[in-house]
């Protein structure tokens, strides 16, 4: 039986140290972490590895339920998958485990709250953007990759995988940038 910790933050500028420290203090034998959105399971390779690794009697430990996901159905499906493998989930804050029936009820409610919280955040974000646009103070989100550098490397003959490695982004981002160039047909993936 292993205690496997899972830490997640949504963006690369956020810090995982606090979650990892809590998971270590809880006695997790293995800790996997990633910096990716919890809106869906897409792109969450570390979580997929944990789910593949889980054995009967193992325990998946997270600091808060929203580290598993922001969508109630996705979180409940994830918990169900753990149970199908004979493993269980424990959330540290508030301390809840699915070992008992009451734990399932509490985790379902917490999952619904996490989803509702995400909707509120998105709504406040949309409202703030609309207010800023009305004042002429909004120019869009900050670009996360250097569009000019990607186009330059493409013109030099580098392929999308090599460009992604050189720039430090995903290959999919390279494809999107190249597809956005004026007068260029979209790249098929």
Automatic annotation (TrEMBL):
Residues 2-136 form the Resolvase/invertase-type recombinase catalytic domain. PROSITE patterns: RECOMBINASES_1, RECOMBINASES_3. The keyword Membrane does not apply. The active site is at residue 10. GO terms for molecular function: DNA binding; DNA strand exchange activity. Keywords: DNA integration, DNA recombination, DNA-binding. The keyword Metal-binding does not apply. One of its GO terms (biological process) is DNA integration. It comes from the Bacteria. Belongs to the site-specific recombinase resolvase family. This is Integrase-like protein y4lS.
């Amino acid at each position: 039986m292993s205690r496997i910790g899972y830490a997640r933050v949504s963006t690369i500028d956020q810090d995982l140290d606090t979650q990892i420290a809590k998971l270590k203090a809880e006695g997790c034998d293995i800790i996997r972490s990633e910096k990716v959105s919890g809106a869906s399971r897409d792109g969450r390779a570390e979580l997929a590895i944990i789910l593949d690794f889980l054995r009967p009697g193992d325990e998946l430990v997270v600091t808060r339920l929203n580290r598993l996901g922001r969508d109630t159905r996705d979180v409940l499906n994830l918990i169900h998958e753990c149970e199908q493998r004979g493993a269980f989930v424990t959330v540290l804050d508030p301390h809840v485990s699915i070992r008992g029936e009451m734990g399932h009820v509490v985790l379902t409610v917490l999952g619904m709250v996490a989803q509702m919280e995400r909707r509120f955040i998105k709504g406040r974000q949309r409202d703030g953007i609309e207010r800023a646009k009305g004042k002429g103070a909004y120019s869009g989100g900050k670009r996360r990759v250097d569009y000019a550098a990607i186009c330059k490397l493409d013109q030099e003959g580098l392929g999308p995988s090599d460009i992604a490695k050189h720039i430090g982004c995903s290959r999919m981002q390279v494809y999107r940038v190249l597809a956005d160039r004026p007068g260029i047909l979209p790249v098929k993936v």
